[in-house]
Amino acid sequence: MAKITLDNLAHSYLPNPKGEDDFALKELNHDWDDGAAYALLGASGCGKSTLLNIISGLLQPSQGRILFDDQDVTHAPTAERNIAQVFQFPVVYDTMTVRDNLAFPLRNRGQDESYVAERVQEIARMIGMEDWLERKARGLTADAKQKISLGRGMVRKDVNALLFDEPLTVIDPHMKWELRTQLKRLHHDFGHTMIYVTHDQTEALTFADKVVVMYDGRVVQIGTPDELFETPEHTFVGYFIGSPGMNVIPARVDGNRAFIDGSELALTRGYGPLDGKVELGVRPEFAHLSQSEGLPVNIRRIEDVGRHKIIRAELFGNEINVIAGEDDAVSTDMNHVTFDAAHVNVYANDWRVKPEGEAA
After folding, report:
1. What is the pLDDT of residues 150-183, one digit of tens each?
2. Same domain, 249 and 234
3. What is 104-165 written as a DSSP string?
4. I want to staple 191 with a disulfide (CB 3.0 to 4.6 A). Which of 35, 139, 234, 312 is the partner?
5. 167 and 182 in contact (C-beta within 8 Å)?
6. Domain span including residue 290
7. Rounded Cα–Cα distance for residues 246 and 228 (Å)
8. How far apart, in whole angstroms, are the C-alpha atoms of residue 213 and residue 204?
9. Quick one: 27 and 103 in the same domain?
10. Any alpha helices (H) in the chain, and if so which ranges?
11. Which one is predicted more confidently, 360 or 69?
């Protein structure tokens, strides 16, 4: 296990980058705690895999350093970093049995055969392949092969870090849940430093202690699932986390009051002068319909999704979503909306603005 330090790290795939826009990974400084489970979350092309490949040693960064327990490994090859990596598509030895595939990393390091047999049996049980150990990998389905890849990544207890690059893409939905549970248990039992790349918020939020949200090559927030939900530091985080995501509404803010198309909304805290594009961020869970109180809205449609209802509405020309309980009465004559003031965030140029009095 290792603390992973990213020091002034950035990367461009261009030979002579001229400016920030030329970098696939914008400058990043952060310590990844020893033994923590992280998820790298973002849309395709945001820089997740670039960062993971730099950590693993498959890619040399254009600038900056990467350290494992304060030791500079920026130019160290992958083999010297003592990591295990599982890729999006399965990488297995087709001519070997499932047993030999799982045993390979241990035998490659000269482990005693009795320990190898015990550990392989444990991992096979974990991934549900105990009855497949004597089968050759050739001819197995893609999801079965990926389970072998996952097992081979988890079989060593002494790795500095376990890196997963969208490993459940080819796994059927039920098995995804099973394997996420097993990965979480593995982390709890052995305390490996784990980094899990995904574009699926459910995978990220259920797996990780902390989620690293990336957007356009930049880390825009690192936080617990609760922090990402309650106080998104960037409008992208609010949009990307949650289903549906956060409502983002153009506004003017003056002290502890906000104005949406001239209508006033009270805020719980005051704000200093704001420049540029100013918006309010309100999650649908903290919006409520009423017949008379609040701001005027037009209901477009109501979607009953079982556990709750999603109301699609329009507020001064802006599309917003409201979530109501399954048993809550909702009708088209409920043409006003109120927001829980304590859960309204203010954004300037997409970044959250701290209210007066909030600790830095």
Report:
1. 888 888 888 888 888 888 877 777 777 777 777 7
2. no
3. HHHHTTT--HHHHHHHHHHHHHHTT-GGGTTSBSTT--HHHHHHHHHHHHHS-SS-SEEEEE
4. 35
5. no
6. 244-352
7. 11
8. 10
9. yes
10. 48-56, 98-107, 113-126, 142-154, 173-190, 201-207, 225-230, 235-240
11. 69
